[in-house]
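Q: Predict the assembly, please.
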Amino acid sequence: MNRHFWRVVAAVMAREITAELRGRETVTALGAFALVVLVIFGFALNPVAVDLEPVFAGVYWLALAFAALVAVGRSFAREKEAGTLEAVAALPADAGAVYAAKVAVTTLWLALVAALLTPPFFVLLDVEASPPWGAWALTTLAGLAGLVSAGTLLSALAVHARGADLLLPLLLLPLEVPVLMAAVRIGESLLAGEPLSAAGGWFRLLVGYDIVFFVAALVLFDYVAEV
Amino acid sequence: MRLLGYASLPAIPVALYMALVAAPTEAFMGHSQRIMYIHVPAAIASYLSFAIVAAAGALYLWRRRDHLDALAHAAAEVGVLFTTITLLTGSLWGRAAWGWWWTWDPRLTTTLVLWLIYVAYLIMRQAIDDPERRARFSAIFGIVGFLDVPVVHLSVVWWRSIHPPNFAGGGTTLDPAMQQALAVCAAAFLLFNLFLIALRWRVERLERSAARARASGRGAAGD
Amino acid sequence: MVYVFAGYAVAFVLMLAYVLRLAARVARLEADLRRPGNFGDGGTVE
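A: Predicted assembly structure:
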């Protein structure tokens, strides 16, 4: 991790963030998408007749997982359209930096979406609970980082395949099983009013997954970007 | 490969004899427990196959030999076959022992997730046209998929557990005769697993050299 | 008992079907590669 690496990370992040500030396309579209998923869940599960508190964490994470799936599916779309996918990694050392920057930016957008949608989530699904919010936010961030770390790598693979839109969820969802399980279990425990330490094992598993997949993808990304 | 074939073919009837005749009948579950002698070995064989997928993928990224990618492909396909067998026999055993076709028990669930990962692996291989890129991307996914195995396993164990206690771990309660039968069956399945991978590998290399010969129009490159 | 039978039947039918299919593919490919002219092996290209 030399200075050059961090310069590339900063440059790619800056480019993505300025593009987003100009159009606000990603956050708006992702937010709207997650909201639609939430409303559909509302219709399917009927919060008027059923108490949704026991399944609330599951619904919350499914909506975020779908949003993450769409977000990582888009993360190389612009390069693909402009034909610059190979050019982003003109220097071999850059590939990992591009990956790290994409993960950071995508996680940031999804975290914003999650923050914006948390109040409507609780209101629309008619769940009155007050989990420890700091722990809730930390779990959300750790879970999103796990989804995005694995997702960004697989998105770079799928973008070169036929039927990338169908292939990405097929590759990603099974790999995400531990993230979803851990995040949902922690969420349930927090909703019950327990502190984060009550689900400490799950939280360590989640952070471990984040680290393992981020590091593995960082190393393997050099092989993706090869021309 | 011949050697593996000759070794595994007689091993299977011996294993069958051990499992069906020599091993004592389980006191509580009765004959249904005999499914274990194919269920557990098939699961072990599939783990071995997926380890070969990851190892061959890593070696491919290092040495860039086409036959290493062919090996990864072969092992993934055979691994999916054995996970399918594990799932189906697990379901039948669950029906016989607990009364349900499917229980979300940790090991069965891990196997299901593995099955999904490697079916996706095979589908991804079909969806990438350029052979070099296909080999490279498959290697990456093979490694990442295998990294996921212990994490998936740990999480489903925490998530729910009604499976009989682990046979491999200490404090086993399995009858010695049963252990012996299980060990023989596992050995037979592993041999047969390696034989199938070798056979599938041979098919893959033959197909590739045929395709290369067709593409170049000059003498077929035999291996 | 019927489940035991079904379990063994499923496992062995699957394995047998797979091994037979592979053996057939090997035999066909080897025959193809040996036939002169088929893959340009000293003869005309298809």
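The two ends of chain C are 55 Å apart (CA to CA). Residues 1-34 of chain C form one domain.
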